[in-house]
Amino acid sequence: MARNQERASAEGYCIQILIVNGEVQNNLSHKSFYIENIGKGGFRFISDVKFELEDRVQVLLRFPDDRSQEVLGRICYSEETADANNMAYGFSVIDGFYTLLASSG
After folding, report:
1. Kindly report the CA angle at 54 between 97 and 29, in degrees rounded to 5?
2. pLDDT for position 9
3. Which CATH number fits the domain that encloses residue 56?
4. 103 or 46: which carries more pLDDT confidence?
5. What is the 3-state secondary structure (H, E, C) of 26-94?
6. pLDDT at 56
7. Could you tell me which of 87, 18, 9 has the C-alpha nearest to residue 53?
8. How do residues 43-102 score in pLDDT, each as one tens digit?
9. Which residues contact 17 (CB under 8 A, 6 or more apart)?
10. pTM above the 0.90 mark?
11. Do the domain assignments include residue 101?
């Protein structure tokens, strides 16, 4: 399936997990998870924490310019990574529109 949405470099973007399926995640809210790529509808992030497909996740999305915004989404896919301790997850935005930084050039 081809994606029609523009993707941006994720350098400098990260998330903190706040709530998973309605449960506050005090142990995860202080840990940063790095984003591999990001688009208007969601992003792909790497995690050593296991998630299930369709988990509802509230995150604090941190932007490279030090802004941040809470976003609600769902885990829409998972893939193994080269590092056996980590998984790559797709996060599809449900609520909390954000604007990506415009690339120069």
Report:
1. 65
2. 57
3. 2.40.10.220
4. 46
5. CCCCCCCEEEEEEECCEEEEEECCCCCCCCEEEEEEECCCCCEEEEEEEEEEEEECCCCCCEEEEEEEE
6. 98
7. 87
8. 999 999 999 999 999 999 998 898 999 999 999 999 999 999 999 999 999 987 777 665
9. 25, 28, 29, 31, 33, 49, 57, 58, 59
10. no
11. no
Range of the domain at 52: 7-95
Checking DSSP bridges between strand 56-62 and strand 42-47, what pairing results, if any?
A: unpaired
Task: Count CB atoms within 10 A of the CB of residue 87.
Answer: 18
- Give me the number of domains the chain comprises: 1
64, HSE (Cβ side, Cα atoms, 13 Å): 12
| Per-residue pLDDT, 73 | 96
Burial 68-80 (b: 16+ CB within 10 A, else e): eeebebbbeeeee
